[in-house]
Structure formats: C-alpha cells, structure tokens
Amino acid sequence: MGGAESTDGVGAPAGLRRINPPELSPPTGFSHAVTATGGRLVLLAGQTALDGSGAVAGDTLPAQFETALSNLLTALRAAGGGPEHLARVTVYATDVADYRAHAPELGRIWRRLAGRDYPAMAVIGAVRLWDEQAMVELDGIAVV
Question: Helical H runs in 10-95?
Fold first, then answer.
C-alpha cells in the first residue's frame, strides 16, 4: 500500500481498516480510505434532524447535526451495528461556510456520539434538502 498507515482503533471490527497515507495531509475528523472485508454491508439512508413526530428539531447547524447523527446511529444500531462499523459517511450541508465555522463543535459532537474512529467522509454543499428547514443531512455505509 505504499507506506499507508492504518489508524485502526482498539475494538475496531474485524475486516474494517482505516488507512491514512503519510504522503497526504493529516486527516482531521475523517480517514482518507477505509477498506472492508467480510461482514454485512449496511446502507444507511440520509438522516436529517427529524424528531419522532417528523418535525425538524433545532435551529442551529450544531443542534441539527447532533440530531441527524443520532438518527443515523439509531438506524445503524437497528441493523445490528455501531459507530465503529461506519466505513463511509457523506454530509450534505446547505451552508458549507457555516459547517466549516462550526467544525470544532461538530467534531466534539461526533466524538461524543460516535467515538474517535473516523470513516471516510465528504462534505457536500446542497442548495436545499428534502425538508426545507433542514441544514444538514448525513448518510452512510457500514460493514457489520
């Protein structure tokens, strides 16, 4: 793998390996690559900050991010997995500049809910999401 270093965390599921080549910039809050072998593939639908009644909860990006991530992890747990099984997460944000401005706080939310083993991630700017009040949506792929 050309000198790529693995950053597997303690307790990382068998078959899931996070790779961060030293030739690339140090990853902050993501892994450059994740390989997965064996296990069951879980495709997680996009989750926004919808509460149990179907209303968007939270009027700030961090509040909505926390609820969206919690919703994603709830779906993953229902499929038999946990945050350590996430191989990829895509974040869709209606305001990427606002997302960047809140990155430290979003990182703290991620670590509190999902731990320190980061999947491969991307943040994509979106004009609007399905729910007009939603500021952020997360979807993912896990290997359980």
Answer: 61-78
Q: What is the DSSP letter of 57?
A: P
How many Å apart are CA 48 and CA 135, to the nearest integer?
Answer: 8
Split at pLDDT 50, 70, 90, the class of 38 is: confident
Q: What is the pTM of this model?
A: 0.86
Closest by CA to 13, choosing from 39, 32, 44, 31, is 39
- What is the separation of C-alpha 142 from the centre of its chain, rounded to a whole number of angstroms? 10
Amino acid at 35: T
Convert the pLDDT of each residue in 96-112 to its tens digit.
999 999 999 999 999 99
Longest dimension (CA), the chain: 50
**Among 53, 77, 56, 54, CA closest to 67:** 56
